[in-house]
Amino acid sequence: MSKPYEASIRNIAEEPWQQFPDHFGGALSKALVHPDTVGSRQLDYRISTYAPMAYVAKHQHKVQEQVYHVLEGEGLMEIGDEKRVVRQHDVVFLPPGVPHSIQNSGLGNLTFIVVTTPVKDA
Does the record's keyword annotation contain Metal-binding (predicted)? Predict the structure, then answer.
């Protein structure tokens, strides 16, 4: 159920950690700006922390664009058939239709922001 569509200020501690579908091994996220948390219509903004070996299954979006901004740790980002190490301060842009996944291949937690727009694929 969506929240009212209005301005809001929230603290990150107010949102519980969740393991969304197709996320495995301790791939946890907080949906900070999302239809279910603040009533957003065009934006999904999450902070995620993946334990070592945690990952999201390879997938693609029909119309959504995504940005991943790595805050700490390191992992492997798979884009199409290419795998690249990502670490602090790396920013990844994914246009619609590009298969991708991210996994924590490092020794500590991998923490990143994910911004998706629009909220849902058409």
Answer: yes
HSE toward the beta carbon, residue 46, CA cutoff 13 A: 25
CA dist list (Å): 96 to 12, 45, 86, 93, 110: 28, 17, 20, 10, 24
Q: Which amino acid is at 32?
A: L
Expressed as residue numbers, the domain containing 108 is: 17-117
In the chain, the N- to C-terminal Cα span, in Å, equals 19
The answer to the question of residue 6 being in a domain is no
Number of domains in the chain: 1
Q: Which residues of 13-38 are buried (b: 16+ CB within 10 A; e: fewer)?
A: eebeeeeeeebeebbbbbbbbbbebb
Judge contact between 58 and 101, C-beta under 8 A.
Answer: yes
Answer yes or no: is 1 within a domain: no
Q: What is the pLDDT of residue 2?
A: 62
